[in-house]
């Protein structure tokens, strides 16, 4: 599995997966912080 070259759909899928993970992580952190602020 030393195949380095990614086709364009694979590269796009990888980029979208990383971006989606970052966005969902940031949104989860923000929502948790917001709930903490509201409950205090």
Name the shape in a single word: rod-shaped
Q: For the CA atoms, what is the radius of gyration?
A: 17 Å
For the sheet with most strands, the description reads: none
Q: What average pLDDT do the residues reach?
A: 91
Number of strand elements? 0
The portion of residues assigned to helices is over 70%
The SS-based structural class is mainly alpha
Low-confidence runs of at least 5 consecutive residues: none
Strand content: under 5%
Task: Based on the model shown, name its key terms.
single chain; 40 residues; mainly alpha; rod-shaped
Write a brief structural summary.
The protein is mostly helical and 40 residues long.
Give an overview in words:
The model has no long low-confidence stretch (mean pLDDT 91). The chain has one helix spanning 8-39. It has 1 helix and no strands. It is 80% helix and 0% strand. The chain has 40 residues and is mainly alpha-helical. The protein is rod-shaped.
């Amino acid at each position: 599995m030393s195949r380095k070259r990614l086709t364009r759909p694979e590269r796009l899928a990888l980029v979208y997966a990383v971006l989606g993970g970052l966005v969902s992580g940031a949104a989860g952190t923000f929502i948790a912080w917001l709930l903490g602020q509201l409950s205090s």
